[in-house]
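Dig into these lines:

——
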Amino acid sequence: VAYNALNELQNCIASLQKTSYPNFEIVVVNNNSESNVKLYLDAAKKQGRVQQVVHSKKNLFFSGGNNVGVEHAAKKAKLLVLLN
């Protein structure tokens, strides 16, 4: 879940990419952030650093954003990690 914290979002995604876990995907719910966050997330998806980006038209806050993220996570996922 992301809301207007571009630097923290960039650091989080970079950190997640360092995992040695063999099979994972990064799903980011953008809670109606400013355009610089949207542009970054769209580029990250295009470059394969993020597998799914969901742009919400309003700020759903932590719990609502998590609900959207879970809906978009892989159906076969055995584990989910929710980060804020």
The first helix runs from residue 6 to 16. The helical segments are 6-16, 35-46, 61-72.
